[in-house]
Specification:
Layout (H helix, E strand, L loop, with lengths): L2 H32 L1 E10 L9 E6 L1 E6 L5 E7 L2 E8 L1 E3 L2 E2 L9 E9 L4 E8 L3 E8 L10 E6 L2 E2 L5 E3 L5 E3 L7 E3 L1 E8 L11 E7 L3 E8 L2 E8 L27 E3 L12 E3 L21 H4 L5 H22 L2
Parallel strand pairs: 1-9, 10-18
Antiparallel strand pairs: 1-4, 2-3, 2-5, 5-8, 6-7, 10-15, 11-12, 11-16, 13-14, 16-17, 18-19, 20-21
């Protein structure tokens, strides 16, 4: 009997504790929810391309990320009462750059903002048309710096070299692209790191660049450091080589399925490449008519021999001559 109140007290204490924990958890959840707000907008590329499924980063009181939808719209959740820099990446993720070249920058820091407790709508965010920047990393003898790393940063936001490699000519190429280089705009920083082996120092070399047109930046990396050179225009994997070193491409002629055929030289000594109509170039030469009475005779000469009337009369006359011949011999 004495243990019954103890059990009831225990049950009451358990229920009260559960209710208290629920209230505390709910309060904590409400407080946590109150600490977040959103920043939204729409990326509008001046080049006319659609910035769909690209990444938006917010860096400040934490690091937050989201993606644009098919129309370029985005909404990113951030902490309240904090300062942020917002960056656009032409990429599925920060380390998965798109290989396309469409005038949209691969990386672009577009907004520095302080958020309060209320959602912020930036509206249309106009992204300027980007220029192509080729980054070339070579050794002092001009050989490519294979195994090196190259990337471009915009106000600290980097393209992340996860999908970038140095090709056989020393140019930085995004995997899957047939064009070297990055599309960027404004003031950026070019970074090159030598291979993590051999006698190269463990260093990251930086070069500030103000982009106002297609540019080629060359980093010549040695064991003692780096020298930089920037020139207008791009001469990367799709650029034209100088005439002195340009190798002409072989010309391949694919015959078309027509009734014409090409010959290098015909029987009469016509120049190579002349075209002869099929009516003058039959695959099987004409065979003259040959027979007992027509040894090479023309068609006109044989017309009398194939006329039905001539054949009938001729047959009758031959029969009469045969009978007369037999009467004369007395058969």
């Amino acid at each position: 009997m004495n243990d019954q109140p103890t059990r009831r007290s225990f049950l009451r204490a358990g229920v009260a504790g559960g209710v208290t924990a629920s209230v505390v958890a709910a309060g904590a959840g409400s407080a946590s929810a109150a600490e977040r707000t959103t920043v939204s907008g729409k990326i509008v590329a001046k080049s006319g391309a659609t910035a769909s499924n690209d990444e938006i980063n917010a860096a400040g009181a934490g690091y937050f990320t989201t993606r644009t939808d098919r129309e370029g719209k985005f909404e990113i959740e951030v902490r309240t009462n904090s300062q942020y820099e917002l960056c656009f990446y032409k990429a599925d993720s920060r380390s998965d750059l798109e290989p396309t070249k469409d005038g949209v920058p691969h990386v672009y820091m577009f907004e520095e903002i302080r958020v309060g407790t209320q959602p912020v709508d930036l509206g249309d965010v106009l992204v300027p048309t980007a220029d192509l920047v080729d980054v070339r990393a070579v050794k002092p003898d001009g050989e490519p710096l294979l195994g090196g790393v190259a990337q471009i940063r915009d106000d600290g936001f980097g393209t992340n070299p996860g999908r970038v490699y140095i090709d056989d000519d020393g140019y930085a190429v995004i995997e899957g692209s047939d064009v070297s280089g990055f599309e960027v705009v404004g003031d950026v920083t070019v970074e090159v790191e030598p291979p993590r082996h051999g006698d190269y120092p463990d260093a990251t070399y930086s070069y500030p660049l103000s982009v106002d047109g297609p540019t080629t930046v060359t980093a010549t990396v040695s064991k003692n450091g780096v020298s930089w050179d920037a020139s207008d225009g791009v001469t990367g994997s799709d650029g034209e080589m100088p005439p002195a070193t340009q190798t002409p491409e072989p010309t391949t002629t694919t015959p078309e399925p027509t009734t014409e055929s090409e010959h290098s030289t015909d029987e009469s000594g016509s120049p190579s490449g002349t075209t002869t109509p099929a009516s003058q170039n039959a695959s099987t030469p004409a065979t003259p008519s040959r027979g007992f009475l027509s040894n090479g005779a023309s068609t006109e000469e044989l017309d009398a021999l194939i006329d039905p009337f001539v054949l009938t009369v001729g047959g009758f006359l031959l029969s009469v001559l045969g009978i007369a011949h037999n009467l004369v011999r007395g058969d």
